[in-house]
Amino acid sequence: MPTPPSSPHAPVTLSIVSHGQLALVLPLLEQLDRHSRGSIAKVVLTLNIPEADLLAGRPWGFPIERIENAAPLGFGANHNQAFARCDTPWFLVLNPDIRFDADVLAPMLVQAAPDAGLMTPRILESGRPEPEPHRALLTPFEILGRKKPGYQPPAVPAWIPGLFMLFRSEAYRRIGGFDERFFMYGEDFDICARTRLAGWKLQVTEDLRARHDAQRASHRSKKYLYWHVTSLLKVWLSGAFWRYWRLQRAAA
């Protein structure tokens, strides 16, 4: 079956990166096709490493453009190269292990505030009945404190994890996308901070849900844990972090 043409009216270009994860991407695409095809102009699927094609011969209600990297790239670099193929008002960065039980995209776009540069629904982790709490400013004290009894998460998030990030393309373009000096971790906080510093808002659609079928490599691999820790250090040494810290203090 030929690939369907991109709809001129669909507002979202979607970026998914597979690190040998097409078995996770397949059910995600099936759910997007079932629930949200009318909002998706195209999916840019990046194969960060070579893998068997589990999607061959399957028809979808939206075109899929593939990028096959000659060498693996980091989280930000992969999504930045996907954004170069985006000509829609919205650009969605989506993890392969996000799952949907209903349409989330169309209602999110209806609820989008004019100054919303970055949006997300509430995220449900596997096996948990309540969505993940909002994130406070990323500091060493906050990381340690969020595990303690009596921790009170903020009513409004200071940043949005990179599982599901729906960017207004104008905002993404204006701030230059992800900072590619990060590798796998830290990019999400950094881009949220720079989005806010550029005058855009982070908007959470509180009545909408997406599920995260968590694949937590940092708990299993010393390599991933190393990347995680070094990325946190890069965050705390960055100018964007301290400018955002001052902005948050002024708003408190």
Automatic annotation (TrEMBL):
Source superkingdom = Bacteria
Q: Return the CDD domains for the record.
A: GT_2_like_c
UniProt-listed Gene3D superfamilies: Spore Coat Polysaccharide Biosynthesis Protein SpsA, Chain A (3.90.550.10)
- Is Transferase tagged as a keyword? yes
| Matching InterPro entries | Galactosyl_T_C, Nucleotide-diphossugar_trans
Query: Which Pfam families has this protein been placed in?
Result: Glyco_transf_7C
Name the SUPFAM superfamilies on file: Nucleotide-diphospho-sugar transferases (SSF53448)
Molecular function, one GO term: transferase activity
Describe the location of the Galactosyltransferase C-terminal domain by residue ranges.
162-206
**Assigned keywords, A-Z:** Transferase
Q: Does the keyword Transferase apply?
A: yes
Protein name per Swiss-Prot or TrEMBL = GT2 family glycosyltransferase
